[in-house]
Write a structure and sequence with these properties.
Helix content is about 30%, strand content about 25%. By secondary structure, it is of the alpha+beta class. An eight-stranded mixed beta sheet has the order 1-2-3-5-4-6-8-7, sandwiched between helices.
Length: about 240
């Protein structure tokens, strides 16, 4: 079977790509997914001009094998701060839980990655202090349907992203799950630090407890880095280590 990377058609593809995304994260189950994509109700639609969706499909069958969402910024997305409202949860303990997840998830990259970059991230509500214009590109999420794993689907997305980074001469950062780390290491990403996300509260309400049950009380992530054009030697001083 031939699998081909294509741009998503925003008029027709989203029902199928959404179903593919949920099925991908249910097999194998990854509980953290519920903190970002809970199954309840619906919220207001929003158009993000920086968003760029891709899909991989079987050329003979047309079936979705996987998808990816990039955010491509021509200017500094953090110049005026980057507060993200967690409004896909009700205003109760479930939202407080998701806010902590998002803040803890973004903190390491905000600390070490304050330069032009391409990055794979989930949601940020931190406010890193940045100035000036940059070109920034985020791989918001990537997924492969269980039926198409180990067939090079995720590699097609990675090849595209790395080519973009090399073209613009920037670093790449990403936050890796345990399942994704082998793919990123194979592509020359280096381990920076482990990030254990573990939201806590002294007074959990029932909504907080229910969200913990669905999303898990902690998740393990690894902040990983690919230097400009993938060139790195042991003696190289990492940019965030410079005085």
């Amino acid at each position: 079977m031939v699998l081909e990377l294509r741009e998503v058609n925003s008029e027709t593809d989203f029902p199928v790509i959404a179903r593919c995304m949920f099925e991908s994260y249910e097999n194998l189950p990854q509980k953290f997914f519920h903190a970002y994509f809970p199954v309840h109700g619906s919220g207001p639609e929003a158009q993000d001009p920086t968003s760029y969706w891709q899909k991989v499909v079987g050329t003979n069958t047309g079936r979705f094998a996987g998808g990816a969402l990039w955010n491509i910024h021509k200017e500094n997305p953090f110049a005026e701060g980057h507060d993200m409202r967690i409004d896909w949860f009700p205003d109760d303990g479930s939202r407080r839980f998701a806010e902590q997840v998002a803040e803890e998830h973004g903190a390491p990259r905000a600390r070490v990655g304050q330069r032009p970059q391409i990055c794979k991230r989930v949601l940020l509500i931190v406010k890193p202090k940045r100035t000036g214009l940059i070109k920034d590109q985020d791989l918001f999420i990537v997924f492969t349907h269980a039926d198409y794993r180990h067939k090079g689907v995720a590699q097609q997305f990675m090849d595209w992203g790395m080519a973009k980074a090399d073209e613009t001469g920037v670093e790449m950062f990403l936050d890796s799950t345990p399942l994704g780390r082998p793919l990123y290491e194979k592509n020359g990403f280096m381990y920076v630090e482990k990030n254990v996300i573990s939201p806590r509260t002294d007074s959990p309400d029932e909504a907080w407890k229910e969200t913990v049950e669905k999303a898990g009380d902690h998740s393990d992530w690894w902040l990983m880095w690919r230097p400009v054009r993938g060139k790195y030697e042991e003696k190289t001083v990492k940019p965030w280590e410079k005085s």
